[in-house]
Amino acid sequence: MKNWKITSVVLPAILLVVVNIYLTLREDSEVQRTVYVEKWKKAEQGNITESFNAKAVIKPSEEHYVYFNEEDKDFDQFLVQEGDAVSAGTPLFEYSSPRLEAEKRELEAEKKAAEGEITSIEEQIDKLESYQLSVEADQPIADTADFMDTALAENSVEEIISSIEQDIYRQEYERSRLEQKVQKYEAQIQSIEEQTGAATISSEVDGIVKQIDKDLGNPVIVIASNTPAVEGYFNERQREKASEGMEIKVSSNSLKKKLNGSIQKINPYPLEDPSVEKESSYLFSGVIEEAPDRLFSGSKVDVTVIVDKAVGVPVIPSKSVHKNQKQEYVYQLTSAGLLAKRSITTGLSFHGEHEVKKGIKPGNTVLLSDAPGSVKKAPFITPVKSLDPNLKTMKTITNREKLRYVLIGVLEK
Amino acid sequence: MIYQVQLLKGLFHPALIRYQLKQAESVKGFLPKVIFLFIISILLFAVSGLFGIGSETISKEVEALSAAELESKKQLFILGRLFAGILFAALFLFLSAMFFWLAADISYIKLVSVQMIVLCIGLFEKALLIPISVAMDINKDASPFALGVIGQHFTSNGYLIHFLGEISIFQVLMIALQYYFITNLSNKNKYLILGTVVVFYLLVWLVSAFLTYINISVIV
User: Fold this and answer.
1) Is the dihedral of CA B15, B17, B19, B21 positive or negative?
2) What is the ipTM of this complex?
3) Mutate which of B133, B136, B152, B172 to disrupt the A interface (most A C-beta within 10 Å)?
4) Separation CA B22–CA B1 (nearest Å)
5) How many Å separate Cα B129 from the centre of its chain?
6) pLDDT per position as a tens digit, A174-226
7) CA A245 to CA A237: how far, in whole Å?
């Protein structure tokens, strides 16, 4: 009897509890909730940098090759040694061209010969001209008795003069021909002189002479320029993320601060033949902006490649971001005192932090602990995080306010 | 005979205790048990406050305040909760005993002894609600033991919902136990006693709901 009585009481009680729980926790519950917020964080204005690290070594960035064309030239001597520092314009080596010299001498000889001929022609012309003059002067004044003889004599004098003149013209023509030849020789000599004028080759860049080939195999001189650079290897994952032009930061134990630089080149082909078993390595090289003193070729450095950067954006912990199908959202603790579901658009994320493009501003507070299932908007409570009384803050609360908060504690509202 | 205050026995073997109480001329072991109940009450309210239960008006300021400011205000809140613990036990034990003492002619101390047993159930309900509020993200209005949840589906009147939230399984049990002891101890009409007890609890619920309903900021 009594059991029946008890059951008739207990069963409805259990039923009530079950119904209440169901009504409270179901998806579209209308029951007023108060969310227990255990952890929360304010969104801050910050930066997110996605990066990865690789090991690299310092190398001179460019090598300049100097070549020597042996044809028609004789090498004289090197003017620098391996290890010398050179700057643009420093002479590197001397050479001479013997065949051209010989040609030049030939031409000069011919020119001289021609000039000699010209001189003798001019002498000849002089002689003819003076003969011409003397012939004209010698002409006597004829009397009438010897009319016939004078006429004959005049004719023969004219004939002589004209033949002299013809001779003169011929000589002058010959002279001008030779003069032209001389000019031609002069021009040729000049052009040869221009070719043989550069007897030294100078450096085009600043740097250090890295290598000299004493056997004159080309390139005869290799100059390493002063701008330092880094070289290293990326593995496959890093290769995917990196691209030429990306900002890098170089650091090492001997450097006081990190150096800025950028990736100059990434080899599209791996170092070794591609193989399924082995991890592929891709050579990359980058330049450094400022050349510090204590960085030697060959020193090992760490390179941080900055894949992407978001500067001065609202940053929230990744744990506070939830995703429902396509839409990302957070739970914001609003200034109205409600926990509200807020849709957001995120950007870059790295290392447990997310950039927020839309929806949350710096200073907004987001829920960090677990999301309360079906709640869209509700008041919330927060546990006491510290019982350590902060006297400084307590002083800022007026006595009237203090009373108010104590009363809230008494009446639980 | 002397009645030894025994709380657990009073809960699980009420018949025995009822008999003892009726027969007893004096009550022993009263003070330690009273102090014990006060301590339990204070502890429960403190723990409830540490979880922030009931701190909606303070927690609401989390966006505007610094961490130090928020915690300081919550510390004041805890202080209030401690007071509430004391008040709760004191009122439940002594004020209600006085009410019944006026209604039924039983010795005051015997009535307080009864209240002590009944208080245990009240404290148990409060203790149960702490983990439930935290785990289910609810407040007292949505207690699974009470009528608040159902009430929320029928009305939007805040006060009414608070009131319905006060009526819980445990409260009914307390009424039953209260009635059980007092009718036996008194020689008044049992329906009168029942009416008195019910009226008392109704008053308690009405006042309690009212206190939840008002906004402290308006007053202070």
Assistant:
1) negative
2) 0.86
3) B136
4) 10
5) 12
6) 899 989 988 988 888 888 877 765 577 888 777 778 888 888 888 888 887 76
7) 18
